[in-house]
């Protein structure tokens, strides 16, 4: 049977979300066609992805990276440099852009796609953390859709189908709690890079894995939800759910709570963002109700995980706070991964830089870009590296 085809571009195809997207495409029975893919530096992995999905275009965003063109499928156009992401996402054939570049670097491609009214399947939460109001306005002005890929936001988005946001009492984001859920303060002080990279339920790229361990990931997701669903931060809660089966919950005015459940596997939210509003068979793991399993829920501990309170504050402030917070976190995480910053100091670094910056409630994109660079420099100084 043939199906109507949706034409997609995959930014960050060599990453964890990018590779899962390739699997979703392969299982789509022709429903998804890949116009182009991008990767930063792992060029062999990028070529292997190209061989699997046969795109028309491949973008290598790091101009210093060499690529063995013999490994590319025949007829595939090779483009090099960060600005080529714009040519790819704005290509007339592209319907949906999977935004799966990590960090602030992901903003450019998403912005360019929204400018042309393309649908964005958004994995890159940093885009909304940095420039939530501007990004949502751009989407609105160009009648472009942003469909969340982040599993919590996908869960909320699914629970909201057929509902009005005005009837929502609370959005409850679930968090696995990461590898250190039951660690004491002393144990948290001694966390190693290896321990932080061993997430109990999710396989992800290194930056988001560290973010999950500090609970910064949930802080970023609170901010992401605030702008994506246009709800005040007072309506957003976090609950710890170690099994990562309930991906989030929406409580309505009448007390009814809708949850979305599935085993922890990003292929489902990725596919839903690409199939929306349709659904079709997915290669993701399925819930097995023939075996006993439990779903626990615990309140979040903001004393041991101060990132949560910080996320709530930044979501409440808006303006320039998100961009500074994000840049400080990206810099601090990179230093932690290089062994130059203690695990517990990541959140302290973010708070210090945030408090030090000149807050502006209505920044432009240019201002946010400058602040991103400023906050990175200040964080390096604070760390003393
Ligand atoms: P990853 O580190 O595995 O992959 C990152 C991708 O971005 C790679 O393809 C890399 O080549 C590309 N990249 C890195 N730096 C770049 C730059 N300067 N310019 C252009 N491209 C660059 O990361 P990931 O885990 O796949 O996460 C990607 C995004 O999705 C992040 O924003 C993350 O927060 C979000 N996300 C990931 C998951 C997950 O399960 N992995 C879940 C929810 C949300
Ligand atoms: Mg998430």
Q: What does this protein structure show overall?
A:
With 385 residues, the chain is α/β, with parallel strands linked by helices. 42% of the residues lie in helices and 16% in strands. The strands form two sheets. Strands 4-3-2-1-5-6-7 form a seven-stranded parallel β-sheet, sandwiched between helices. Helix 13 packs antiparallel against helix 14. The longest helix is centred in the last third of the chain and has 19 residues, at 365-383. The mean pLDDT is 97. Bound molecules: nicotinamide-adenine-dinucleotide (NAD) and magnesium ion (MG). Nicotinamide-adenine-dinucleotide binds at residues 12-18, 39-40, 61, 82, 100-102, 105-106, 123-126, 150, 202, 204-205, 207-208, 266.
